[in-house]
Specification:
Length: 59
Amino acid sequence: MNQTGTMKPTEVRHVGLVCRHCGCRHFHTVYTRRRNDGIIRRKRCRHCGHAITTREKIL
Ligand SMILES: [Zn+2]
């Protein structure tokens, strides 16, 4: 048996968010709030602590 290629190493997903302050792409979600028209996520940069808010629509 030869099992290769199915397990990938640590994969980082980039959602397209880039910190305006330091330019890094590493964010962690502070909280998630659900609204009628979508979801609001509060995220904070891991490097400089700059907070951003993103909206996601529920389809
Ligand atoms: Zn930053």
